[in-house]
């Protein structure tokens, strides 16, 4: 079998640079295009790309994906900022191109995927939960896609366990002091020079606190997940949301 033909969109960015390096180094993959801002998407077709790794910006990702899906190019997407409305658009394009697969991974880090899973498992046992995500100051969005996904998973697990709203006796607060509520879970975003990507999920109940934390020390930590996504998406039509679906995690 020939090598899988892979393109990277956002190739000059922090993640894109790493992805270009990782794809180039993989023996079973061939980097056929590396697109930056202003480059024509037609270059993907001309290069015969089978999979596009999308690592740009929330403002650009939809247009890029529509182009790819309509041409049967599979997508591996790290770019954040996904809402139900945006996902609905993507599902519509995929419905018209049923053999095409798109993986959206809020986080490609294996440890981060496990953090989300462990938080989901712990959620029903604790009265209180808060999420603190910390990133480099160049990050375009807040809260992080990982924190939003974690809050959604925790919120759903709390609802399934009939946990009501968590206690919070705050009467007055400065705007933002209690973070942003995502699915009933307060999420706090820190932006600090020197950081890469970090998250703590803090659970509390009478007399005990459980903290689940994860740190990405560099962006090469995301690359095994990117490469796994590239290899698996070509055999997985439709939308896959979350790298956990490509990992053999026990329930
Ligand atoms: N899922 C995961 O595990 C991870 C996801 N991310 C996400 O990936 C995305 C990129 O992050 P990061 O690499 O740090 O960001 P960067 O800003 O470093 O890189 C983004 C790159 O995309 C370019 N770009 C913007 N618009 C377009 C476009 N329309 N076509 C082609 N290129 C474009 C930018 O160009 P210019 O500089 O000119 O704007 C820049 O080079 C973010 O959404 C981030 O949250 C990041 C890390 C891990
Ligand atoms: O922008 C980043 O850097 C990251 N973005 C993703 C997110 O928003 O969760 C993944 C990781 O946290 C790094």
TrEMBL record:
Enzyme Commission number(s) from the entry: 1.17.1.8
Domain Dihydrodipicolinate reductase N-terminal per the UniProt entry, residue ranges: 5-108
Catalytic activity: (S)-2,3,4,5-tetrahydrodipicolinate + NAD(+) + H2O = (2S,4S)-4-hydroxy-2,3,4,5-tetrahydrodipicolinate + NADH + H(+); (S)-2,3,4,5-tetrahydrodipicolinate + NADP(+) + H2O = (2S,4S)-4-hydroxy-2,3,4,5-tetrahydrodipicolinate + NADPH + H(+)
Domain Dihydrodipicolinate reductase C-terminal as annotated: residue spans: 111-247
Single GO term (MF): 4-hydroxy-tetrahydrodipicolinate reductase
Residues annotated as binding NAD(+): 10-15, 78-80, 105-108
Record InterPro entries: DapB_C, DapB_N, DapB_N_CS, DHDPR_bac, NAD(P)-bd_dom_sf
Family the entry assigns: Belongs to the DapB family.
Task performed by this protein: Catalyzes the conversion of 4-hydroxy-tetrahydrodipicolinate (HTPA) to tetrahydrodipicolinate.
GN (gene name): dapB
Listed name of the protein: 4-hydroxy-tetrahydrodipicolinate reductase
Compartments (UniProt record): Cytoplasm
UniProt binding sites for (S)-2,3,4,5-tetrahydrodipicolinate: 136, 145-146
Active site: 135 (proton donor/acceptor), 139 (proton donor)
SUBUNIT field: Homotetramer.
Pfam family, one: DapB_N
Pathway involvement of the protein, from the record: Amino-acid biosynthesis; L-lysine biosynthesis via DAP pathway; (S)-tetrahydrodipicolinate from L-aspartate: step 4/4
Record keywords, A-Z: Amino-acid biosynthesis, Cytoplasm, Diaminopimelate biosynthesis, Lysine biosynthesis, NAD, NADP, Oxidoreductase
Gene3D superfamilies assigned to the protein according to its UniProt record, in alphabetical order: Dihydrodipicolinate Reductase, domain 2, NAD(P)-binding Rossmann-like Domain
